[in-house]
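User: Okay, second chain of the day. Same drill as before: sequence in, structure tokens out.
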Amino acid sequence: MEISLILAEEITKLFIIMAMGWALVRARVLKTEDSRVISAIIVYLVAPCIIISSFQIEHSRQVVSGLLFSFAAALFAHALFLLLAAVFGRALRLDTAEKLTVVYTNAGILVLPLVQAMLGGEYLVYSCAFIVVQLILLWTHCRCVLSGSAGIGWRKILFNLNVISIFIGGAMFLLGVRLPEIVDGTLKMTGSMIGPLGMLLAGMVIADVPARRIFGDRRRYLASALRLVAAPVILLIAFKICGAAQMIPDGKNILLVVYLAGVTPACATVTSMAQLYGDIGDRTGVLYVLTTLLSIVTMPLVIALYETVI
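Assistant: Same drill. Structure tokens below.
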């Protein structure tokens, strides 16, 4: 239960920061539109820093096998989420926004600070696997669903700054290139801002959404339950059945990194893409807000379940 308690404490801290962002907008110190500046800082500065610094670890056979294992687990998790979205979508008549909520998580913002707090910086490298797999699906599957086109945005994938950062960090890891201490320390210090800035951003976005839109539609609770409870529990059962945690040394902790990424709330990027490519930005936005608020309760519970089952 120790890890789940640490998670609950860290999530509580992040949600207090989210409340600060909400208060700044409600007090008219900032505007919701100002959140775009914070979003740009996260995407173009903070996330690349933490990704590159996470690869500044000693090259070993165990780390390489752990990376391959985390990629396989991330691929499995996303394939399962896609299958669940199709099955639930047909059985429960989910709309497009609800099905995308089942598939895509907000791992890019939440998983990095939580992994750092729960397991330590040496495990951050394994979270990159889930991020890469999800980015590829966002610019292939998600983009096609929203736009109705069959094209694949390879340019968006290959030139995504997070993917470029993973390539750079991975190359330095494989070649044994170590950054000077002052540079690595600067990257780590900058990267440590991702959690607070991400939740501050969420609070600013929430401040502009009427409470009735968030809590008034009972249908949205169904999609939220599928994302935060049903999908994590089914993923956990699948991991248990195939014995994934015993496949490699330290498999339980590495699998926990992937699992943590898979139980976070709905993906903020889906809302941005829905506004750009489709007309369901308001629905995905409400689901993002609702699942984010509910995850303060659900995430510690499903991680406690992981500790018990795995």
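The chain has one domain: 2-305.

User: Thanks, on to the next one.
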